[in-house]
Design brief:
This protein is α/β, with parallel strands linked by helices. The chain contains 10 helices and 10 strands. Helix 7 links the parallel strand 4 and strand 5.
C-alpha cells in the first residue's frame, strides 16, 4: 500500500521536474536522540527513492531557541525548499509550539501549524498530519467505508488522535476519543466497529482479541519494545482471530506515515509552483 503512494509521488515528482521544479525537503534534527536520528535517516532515504532532494540540518542539543527560529525563517524564505520537517520531540529548553508556529504553513509537511490545524478542522486542509492521513489512505485503498461506523480512537494527541478524529468525522463516522482517564474503556472498545489505538506502552495498555467484537477493524499505531522486539498496542495473534482487518507492527501504519510525508512534500512543491505563476 505504501508502495502505491510512493509510485504516485514519484510520478508527480517527475512531472514537476519536467516543469522546472525540483521538490526539496529540509529536515531539522536537534540533539542526539538515536530514535529521532533513525527516523530522519529513513525519511531521507524514502525521499531519495522517489526523486525528492533533501537538505539535512543536524544540530547540537545545545542549539538555542532563537538560533532554531532563525534557521526556520531562513528555510521559510528559501524558494528552493518546499517542505520543512522539524523532528519532534525537541530538547526541553526549546518551546515546540513556538517553533511549529514559526513554520510557513505552505511548507509545513507535518501539518502541525495552527493554520493547518485550523484548516483541517474546517474540512479544507491541504497539508494534513501524516499518520492520520496515512490511516485514511489505507481505509480508502481497501474500500473500507467508515460512514455510520462507531469508531474509537485511543489517543488524544495533536499528532494522531485529534486530527484523525476530524478526518473520520468528515467521512461520516461516529467518533469517540479515549485516553488514560476514560471510564469503561473496555465497554467502548467492545462496541466499536473501528478501533484505532496509539498508546505505545504495553505495560499500560495491550489490546487483546477478547476486547473487540467479531469483525471489528483494528488499526494499530502504537510502537513499543517487548522482549527486544518492536510491537504495537495490539496482541496481533489474538486480535487477528476476531478482527476483519488488523494492521501489523512493524510494516503497517508506520510505512504509510512515511509515504504521506513524501506526498505532502510534493503537494507543497505543487502549491509553490502555482503561486510563482
Amino acid at each position: 500500500m505504501s508502495a502505491d503512494v510512493k509510485a504516485r509521488v514519484k510520478k508527480a515528482v517527475d512531472e514537476l521536474k519536467e516543469n522546472g521544479v525540483q521538490p526539496c525537503l529540509a529536515t531539522v534534527l536537534v540533539g542526539d536522540d538515536s530514535a529521532s536520528a533513525t527516523y530522519v535517516s529513513s525519511k531521507q532515504n524514502d525521499a531519495k527513492e522517489v526523486g525528492i532532494v533533501t537538505r539535512d540540518h543536524r544540530l547540537a542539543a545545545t542549539f538555542k531557541q532563537n538560533e532554531l527560529l532563525e534557521l526556520v525563517q531562513l528555510l521559510n524564505k528559501d524558494y528552493k525548499v518546499h517542505g520543512i520537517l522539524v523532528q519532534l520531540p525537541l530538547p526541553n529548553h526549546i518551546d515546540e509550539l513556538e517553533i511549529i508556529t514559526a513554520l510557513s504553513p505552505l511548507k509545513d509537511v507535518d501539518g502541525l501549524t495552527p493554520y493547518n490545524a485550523g484548516m483541517l478542522q474546517s474540512g479544507m486542509g491541504l497539508l494534513k498530519p501524516c499518520t492520520p492521513s496515512g490511516i485514511m489512505e489505507l481505509l480508502n485503498y481497501y474500500n473500507i467505508d467508515v460512514a455510520g461506523m462507531d469508531a474509537v480512537v485511543v489517543n488524544r494527541s495533536n499528532l494522531v488522535g485529534k486530527p484523525l478524529s476530524l478526518l473520520l468525522l468528515q467521512k461520516n463516522a461516529t467518533v469517540t476519543i479515549c485516553h488514560s482517564k476514560t471510564r469503561n474503556l473496555n465497554e467502548k472498545l467492545y462496541n466499536a466497529d473501528l478501533v484505532v489505538t496509539a498508546v505505545g506502552n504495553r505495560q499500560r495498555f495491550t489490546l487483546m482479541g477478547d476486547m473487540i467484537k467479531e469483525g471489528a477493524i483494528v488499526i494499530d499505531v502504537g510502537t513499543a519494545r517487548l522482549n527486544n522486539k518492536l510491537v504495537g498496542d495490539a496482541d496481533f495473534e489474538s486480535v487477528k482471530q476476531k478482527a476483519s482487518w488488523v494492521t501489523p507492527v512493524p510494516g503497517g501504519v508506520g510505512l504509510m506515515t512515511r509515504a504521506m510525508l513524501l506526498k505532502n512534500t510534493v503537494t507543497a512543491a505543487s502549491i509553490a509552483k502555482e503561486m510563482s505563476k
